[in-house]
Amino acid sequence: MAKVKGPTPQSQDFSQWYLDTIQLAELADYAPVRGTIVVRPYGYALWENIQRVLDGMFKATGHQNAYFPLFIPMSFLQKEAEHVEGFSPELAVVTHAGGEELEEPLAIRPTSETIIGYMWSKWIRSWRDLPQLLNQWNNVVRWEKRTRPFLRTSEFLWQEGHTAHATKEEAEEETARMLGVYLQFARDYAALPVIPGQKTEREKFAGAVYTTTLEGMMKDGRALQSATSHFLGQNFARAFEITFQDKDLEEKYVWTTSWGLSWRIIGGIIMTHGDDKGLVLPPKLAPIQVVIVPIYKAGSKERVLQAAGALEAELREKGLRVFTDDRDQYTPGFKFHDWELRGVPYRVELGPRDVEAGTAVIKSRIGEKETAPLADLKELLPKRLEAFHDELFARAREFRKARTRVVDDYQAFKEAVAEGFALAYHCGDAACERAIQEETKATARVIPLEFPAHGVLQDDEALKATGEGTCIRCGRPAAYGRRVVFARAY
RNA sequence: CGGGGCGUAGCGCAGUCCGGCAGCGCGCCUGCUUUGGGGGCAGGAUGUCGCAGGUUCAAAUCCUGCCGCCCCGACCA
């Protein structure tokens, strides 16, 4: 009897479970520089699938990809007051290059609003040059004090969209539209039931007029910001003199937006769906959707492998991502555990008895085994993967609902944020928000909002409710006209 | 950046108190045998004991300094 190998149980130490799972599933490994990680092939394949889906959605909404440089003159970052205050503490700066000290230090981009603003000020002359609808897939660097793989790393991969518009209305519409794109991605591809809405003043992006966000609940009840879309107003336009001559002959500042989603979403997928056996990957993003495990003895190896090969070809023809695990040095039992750890949604077991009978055993990562005719699998498995996705989403949403409490007194609030989300009225005062954080470790995560025109809807009635009340902590009249989601956050 | 803990084979650890042959489990390699839920037997390889200096006949072990990692806290658009 071999010792059981696998991640630390979630109930014992959720944080350790997360770290173990990433290592054991070979998603990533620690790199030599503090806070940096190597994304290993299996993890990168997951990221590539995320990129592929999102990139298609960006293009479908009229955006084009471009690439702006990694190095940004320090002076650029200082042009927008809130921006510099927000990002200075975590900047990495190049002071020497080519063996000499640089005249002006170069910041390694923490985000690209400034350099894109600078370029736009050169490119934009007329209303005919608008809108600018750009996106870039790149890396950014933020020197965080405390890091965690995927969730907060010194360097991370993401995409950052940047748009410039002639009118405020158009820019605000873009902000909502892209939040809608992220919500669709989260719901329909990552199976993440996230709460769309707006950040409070205290939590918004440094330099934004307002920030919209998607907040998810992890299996330990903590919140994870999964994507953001910012309305930047004319803040960066003024800082970088981005103006255009409008149809009415007036010279005007443009209105800009930015929006981003990082590989942090991988952390969200891990902590939303994973269990004590390891990863559970949503089928639409999983690098491998179906793994075929051939089972054979000396005399049956050839027959079984041939049947496995034929099945793999059939499933590939249906567009499924399939892998046949014919590694000779491992037993079937080992392979079962191995692919469960790696979160593959469906497994097909194919042994001599099955080949003989023209059947196979299929097993869902989150369900029971069943026997099905081999000939049916090419129709059956795509349906099962759809159902798998739906079940992942449904159970995550149920989990979130079960751990979300509507609270009206501070004691209940404290209990709620120890376990999950608290829906509470708040006065909107930043000092009061800070006090709540000091007293409970919870922060205002999101003011739930809907933008029906862009498909941004809540998936829970409790989050749609509007109303007036008094602040959960200080008792002053509540702001926002609705309850705010508070939680401990990553 | 403050408090605590830990650095010994790829991973997890024992050995450190009380100086005296570098060990265990897993993994890895070879062969045989196995294969329907983490197989078995036999043989084998792998060490800058975090780094530097000191004490000593002798240092993983004692002393000094440094570095790194983890946890808690502060910080974290």
Keywords:
single chain, BirA Bifunctional Protein, domain 2, Rossmann fold, Translation Initiation Factor IF3, 3 domains, 11-stranded mixed beta sheet, 5-stranded mixed beta sheet, 14 helices, 23 strands, 35% helix, RNA-binding
Can you walk me through this structure?
This protein has 490 residues and is of the alpha+beta class. It has helices spanning 14-24, 41-60, 74-77, 81-87, 113-123, 168-188, 235-240, 264-273, 301-317, 332-341, 352-357, 377-402, 410-419, 430-440, and strands spanning 28-30, 37-39, 64-65, 71-73, 92-97, 100-108, 132-141, 155-165, 195-198, 210-217, 223-233, 243-245, 251-253, 255-262, 290-294, 322-324, 346-350, 359-364, 369-373, 404-406, 421-424, 443-448, 484-487. It folds into 3 domains: 14-273, 2-Layer Sandwich (BirA Bifunctional Protein, domain 2), CATH 3.30.930.10; 290-387, Anticodon-binding domain (Rossmann fold); 402-487, Translation Initiation Factor IF3 (2-Layer Sandwich), CATH 3.30.110. An 11-stranded mixed β-sheet has the order 3-7-8-14-11-10-9-22-23-21-20, with helices on both faces. It has a 5-stranded mixed β-sheet with strand order 16-15-17-18-19, with helices on both faces. Helix 13 links the parallel strand 20 (404-406) and strand 21. Helix 2 (41-60) packs across helix 6 (168-188). The longest helix has 26 residues, at 377-402. The two termini are 39 Å apart. The structure holds one RNA strand of 77 nucleotides.
